[in-house]
Design goal:
Largest sheet: 3 strands, antiparallel
Strand order of the largest sheet: 1-2-3
Structural class: mainly alpha
Radius of gyration: 23 Å
Bound molecules: carboxymethyl coenzyme *A
Number of strands: 6
Oligomer: single chain
Shape: globular
Distance between the termini: 56 Å
Length: 426
């Protein structure tokens, strides 16, 4: 640890307080203010945690100003173009990329665990028609704790990895079942002869005893989307997972909380909103009108798929997906009117002073929504795809937190602005 400090001066009293500076391996230095209240009697205020590091982590690194994203020290473009989603999941969980043999064993292990308890089908039956698959998925993951309760309280690292494999393997099955039930379609069981991504598309789009032809580009596109979503440092859903984990809740409860946090349209729900918005705009001639709405401070309308809390230059995930989108549009018949609307929005926003000055660039969701639509994935499933991708990240963060000595329960304070004591004096 460095012996550098930051001095805070209270200009009401001229009292000085020193706080240690913690040095990361990469990125901004961090001021340790854990003794701030004890020393000064004041809290710090940071709405939306824009300047707050909430934990030490060795998993993911983001440099928002340079558009850089790394998992365990590997650049995202290397992982997305040279490795698969399962390589990436293994890397996040174990800290190292797998050898060929280890990857094969890992794929086998996930296939073996991809079936869910038959009793869980009663749960799916209980939901009304058209229930949103995200609601069913979060309930399904929570319900895993009632079927697989041997891992609720785990102590050994092996148990944690077994739990991780179980959740990663079963989430695509629960996700596909959620959709099939919500549409009144027959469920398709996992096929042990298919790879992770192919199997999910098969369970989602297939019919019993009917082989569906998948083009390699479709599998590659979805694999890339999952890889790009696999982790993203301390975003809202990961923070939700860590906050719940800090109470020592079991992993299913933590991951289910992550799913619910991710559902919001400012986070993982954005890709669904992007496509809904593109459909609403409908025609290239309407784009200008909606750009004007997005810029109007009195209009709550926002251009979905633009802006990011951390990336203030470009979103490296968006750049990779833009290339995949191009490859796909060459091989598949993409909706040309929707693509034209998206292209026009991108063109205007990238040159408009409002968006440029606020550093609002297309984010991953701007492209992923269009790609998922091309893969014939229903809009209600877009956030679910994000969940399948993000699960290895959430579990890696959960394991990292659980392996720390002296876990502290997450318990922020507040700036109270309610009434002063108005209890009648007796
Ligand atoms: N359209 C129009 N104006 C916008 C947009 C947008 N998409 N995003 C931000 N702004 C404006 C905002 O009105 C504000 O303007 P002003 O300074 O004049 O008040 C300024 O830009 C800063 O916005 P902010 O809300 O303070 O920024 P934030 O960092 O808190 O929010 C965000 C980041 C992603 C929630 C936001 O940009 C947004 O709502 N984007 C649309 C939703 C979206 O695409 N979400 C997916 C994010 S990527 C997936 C993920 O990692 O979860």
């Amino acid at each position: 640890m460095s012996n550098k400090t930051v001095t805070v001066i209270d200009n009401r009293t001229n009292q000085k307080y020193d706080f240690p500076i913690l040095e990361p391996t990469m990125g901004a230095d961090v001021v340790d203010i854990s003794t701030f209240y004890q020393k000064t009697g004041m809290f710090t205020f940071d709405r939306g945690f824009t300047s707050t590091a909430s934990c030490r982590s060795a998993i993911t690194y983001i440099d928002g100003s340079k558009g850089k994203l790394m998992y365990r020290g590997y650049d995202i473009s290397y992982l997305a173009t040279k490795k698969t989603f399962l390589d990436t999941a293994y890397l996040l969980l174990n800290g190292e990329l797998p050898s060929k043999e280890r990857l094969e064993a890992y794929c086998k292990e996930l296939k073996k665990r991809s079936f869910i308890h038959e009793g869980m089908k009663k749960l799916f039956d209980a939901f009304p028609d058209n229930a949103h698959p995200m609601a069913i998925l979060s309930a399904g993951v929570s319900a895993l704790s009632t079927f697989y309760f041997d891992h609720l309280d785990m102590d050994s690292p092996d148990e944690a990895l077994e739990m991780a494999n179980r959740i990663i393997a079963k989430i695509p099955t629960i996700a596909a079942f959620s959709y099939r039930y919500s549409q009144g379609l027959p469920v398709i069981y996992p096929d042990l002869n298919k790879g992770f991504v192919e199997n999910f598309l098969y369970m989602l789009r297939g019919y019993p005893h009917h082989y569906i032809e998948l083009k390699p580009i479709e599998i590659k596109a979805l694999d890339t989307i999952l890889t790009l979503h696999a982790d993203h440092e301390q975003n809202a859903s990961t923070t939700a997972v860590r906050v719940v984990a800090s109470t020592r809740a079991h992993p299913y409860a933590c991951i289910s909380s992550g799913i619910n946090a991710l559902w919001g349209r400012a986070h993982g729900g954005a890709n669904e909103s992007v496509v809904r918005q593109l459909e609403m705009i409908g025609r290239v001639e309407n784009v200008e009108k909606y750009i004007a709405k997005a810029k109007d401070p009195n209009d709550p309308f926002r251009l979905m798929g633009f802006g990011h809390r951390v990336y203030k230059n470009f979103d490296p995930r968006a750049t990779i997906l833009k290339n995949i989108q191009k490859e796909l549009s060459e091989e598949l018949n993409l909706d040309s009117e929707l693509m034209a609307v998206a292209k026009k929005i991108e063109e205007i926003a990238l040159n408009d002073e409002y968006f440029v000055s606020r550093k609002l660039y297309p984010n991953i969701d701007f492209y992923s929504g269009i790609i998922l639509r091309a893969l014939k994935i229903p809009k209600e499933m877009f956030a679910v795809i994000f969940v399948i991708g993000r699960t290895p990240g959430w579990i890696s963060q959960w394991i990292e937190l659980r392996n720390q000595d002296n876990i502290k329960i997450a318990r922020p304070r507040q700036l109270y602005i309610g009434p002063k004591d108005r209890t009648p004096k007796e």
